[in-house]
Amino acid sequence: MLTIKKLTKAHAGRTLFYETELIVNWGERIALVGPNGAGKSTLFRMIRGEDTPDEGEIIMDDYAVVGYLPQEAGDPTDRTVLEIAMSTTPEMGDAIRTLRECEAKGDNSSDAYAHAMDTFISHDGYQIEPKAKRILKGLAFKDEDFHRPAREMSGGWVMRAHLAQLLVAEPDLLMLDEPTNHLDLMSLLWLRRYLLNYPGAIFMISHDRDFMDELVETVYDIENAELVRYTGNYTRFLELKEQRYELMLAAWRKQQREIAHFEAFIERFRSVASKAALVQSRIKQLEKMRRIEKPKQVRRVFKFIFPQPPRSMQRVLELEKVGQSYGERRIYKNLDLLIERGDRIVLVGPNGAGKSTLLKVLAGVIPIDEGKRIVGTTTRIGYFSQMRSENLTPNFTVLEEIMAADPELREEEARGVLGSFMFRRQDVDKRVEVLSGGEKSRLSLVKFLVNPPNLLLMDEPTTHLDLMSVEALCQALKRYEGTLVFISHDVHFIRSLAEKTLHINHGTVTPYAGGYDYYLEKSGLLDSDNAMNM
């Protein structure tokens, strides 16, 4: 379906790809991985014709239909959610818009209306509409959302509408750039189930390990300006990449020994006439030898023993008969909740169910309308919100910010921790005020880890983290001896940490005395029919 031959591409003076190759077969499921800035999105743009390679070819089958989901939606329009989902082609989109405008004017007998209706029918509009509604519901849209203009909704919801559009259209090649970024846990579970049965090929960029493990069968890794192909899911890729590194390192060491042996021979016998022929032979061998580059160390999770928080009382925090509203909407009524020392609780449920509100109530960030919030006398709360930058000092450098958070931290340890969370050598000297939103988020996270409270309340802590940084956070929190309550849509992260689950929906909090898989089993979500109709 898609063939890339001898592709070379440089950007800003750096070679992203050099004479590299890639093949996507019909129906294949592929993940494209590599560190931030390696060129993943650039490759996607070249495949779509939005950028051009410096050298090489990108060959797409003439009959293949390609669909693409970018990381961010474009400017929202006055099209409704349902109109976006049903616009499987530009012609279909124009026809739907014309039909709506004519019907609003009561002009159902014009030539424009008739032409639009012919297009609507020829594109199977009456069959597409129920399919679009079913997919929109799977992505957590409600019936009343279908006819809302996209401009009234957040960027995340607009992205979901565009994802629905692609799933309705069913292109032969589905290109997805971080498709899970804007999804809650329930929508992510639904999408994963849906894509398992998707009839076309899938080519994705993702930072969601579990999502890739469930779906992909081939991984292309961007390494040293080359696309290296691995067979298997993401976890298998990690194993094979480590094996490849060890083999390449062994080959490099063997060649270095051979080179050293030749050079020693040449140096020893250079002035010996009887050895002149042998010396020249060794020199020619060295000149002809194809030098193996020393392989770069496979990036591994930085292991740092974080300080442990002071021990809390058994009853860490308690809510009694709490009532809470958001504007006119009542979210909680008579809510009772006890958090005990050592609990590791994940809050799950659809978007808008009240998960973040509950976390804010627990943190004391918002006052409760009624009831009691009882904090243990030795409880020290840390709240990691989605608004990360409020606790940072603008004129500090990144390194100074971390050193100030824990005066006992050695500089080399601070640099190691920062490196594990994607702060490179030159980044640690940046002023906080010039950091991007993602960088501020990561810096706030590291501050929590180097000086943790004994109750950690975390709202989507893996946002803006790459796969290795997510793993570093998992390892740090596994060793954390305090109490943890968090919200996340990263299934690998949840599986690694959660020991209890609270499902929240319509103000009802349902506890499950186990982690993610226990919750799926007991809630019935492992049943494929339930998962597809959530």
- Side-by-side strand order of the widest sheet: 5-6-7-3-8-9
* Average pLDDT reading: 89
Q: What is the 3D shape?
A: flat
User: How would you characterize the largest beta sheet?
Assistant: 6 strands, mixed
If helices are DSSP runs of H or I spanning 4 or more residues, what is the number of helices? 18
Can you tell me the residue ranges where pLDDT is under 50 for at least 5 consecutive residues?
A: 528-534
The count of strands amounts to 18
End-to-end distance = 34 Å
Class per helix and strand makeup: alpha/beta
Strand residue percentage: 15-25%
Task: Report the helical percentage.
Answer: 25-40%
Backbone CA Rg: 28 Å
Written overview of the protein:
By secondary structure, the protein is α/β, with parallel strands linked by helices. 40% of the residues lie in helices and 22% in strands. It contains 18 helices and 18 strands. It has helices at residues 40-47, 81-86, 90-105, 111-122, 125-138, 155-169, 185-196, 209-215, 234-269, 276-288, 355-363, 398-405, 411-420, 437-450, 467-479, 491-497, 516-523, 528-532, and strands at 2-11, 14-24, 29-33, 55-60, 66-69, 173-177, 201-205, 218-223, 226-231, 315-326, 329-340, 344-348, 370-375, 381-384, 455-459, 483-487, 500-505, 508-512. Strands 5-6-7-3-8-9 form a six-stranded mixed β-sheet, with helices on both faces. A six-stranded mixed β-sheet has the order 14-15-16-12-17-18, with helices on both faces. Helix 3 (90-105) crosses helix 4 (111-122) and helix 12 (398-405) packs parallel to helix 14 (437-450). The chain starts with a strand and ends with a helix.
